[in-house]
Amino acid sequence: MDFEFSEEHLLVQEGARDLVESKIKPAAIDTDKNHMIDPTLVKTISELGYLGAYIPEVYSGADLDFLSYIIIIEEVSKACASTGILISAHTSLCCNPILQSGTETQKQNFLPSLATGEKIGCFLLTEPDSGSDAANIRTTYVEKEDAYILNGNKIFVTNGGYLGIGIVFATRDRSQGYKGISAFIVDLSTSGIEIMGNEEKLGIRGSYTTSFALDNVKVAKENLLGKEGEGFKIALETLNGGRIGVAAQALGIAEGAFDRSRAYAKERKQFGKPLAAVQAIQFKLADMKLKIESAKLITYKAAWLKCQKMQHSVESAMAKTIASETATWVTKEAIQVHGGYGYICEYEVERMFRDAKITEIYEGTNEIQRIVIAKDVLK
Question: So which residues are the catalytic ones?
């Protein structure tokens, strides 16, 4: 086994770190306060190819491998989890299903504008009455002449506020359960799609989390993704990869909080000596590092398996679970290391604490991940 990054991966990491230090980190507090990522920053990220990281060059992508993409998410999320999930949801949840399940015409029609950031992608699966129970969706579609007509409601749509391209899931016949679900590629500026609101949230405040109403939305037949009835399968396959992106986001949050805690412990003096000289603080930092390195290993393993086109559903579930719970724990301890200052916004670990929790919830709650892992253990 080789645990070293290749030269290409090191270059990707260095480039991402440069972007973080020059653009993302200085804007992170304002991103949180203003509940949005500055459009100029989104443009910069697009120009660097980060929104098309592992999209082939023929579709205007950067043509990197999946591990490079995960490195980008991790590095960006060390400074700003909102920006990290912008890239992750766009790439894993919208670009990837088109790349994996789309026709050549669909790839040519949609991937270039997504890869270059002209359009921001999202994933419309969750509904008011179907979260973890994704097979219970109520959004319907019917066939009418040369199109499909969609009606229903979608919630918790990351990146939805950009009104770019969405992968929309709907059922033709609810009595068929998951077998009745199909997936569609939809331009969210289409007539009949209405934003019902962008949610105000505990964390990742710079990320749009949008609710939609779909009222007789006309979707061309050529925008059916895969075949009719394959929507649930496409959703599961998409989330398998997406969870590695969430793991990378969580890993980055944890690492960012750890870096700030270590620096603070070295600088802050109490009782005539640095906090880092106090064994209780040393143990906290040691435990942080232990958990982070464990999460990093399984996250990179899951990414490597996907790069090799090997089965990775269990590993992605484990990576998402371990990394997200590590992020929640590490950021809590980071506040404790900072003491009262940890509760103050300018020290950033307060924001990271708020940002971490969602990684245990979206793209499949950790309870769902444990079901996936348990099925594999007991098969």
Answer: 363
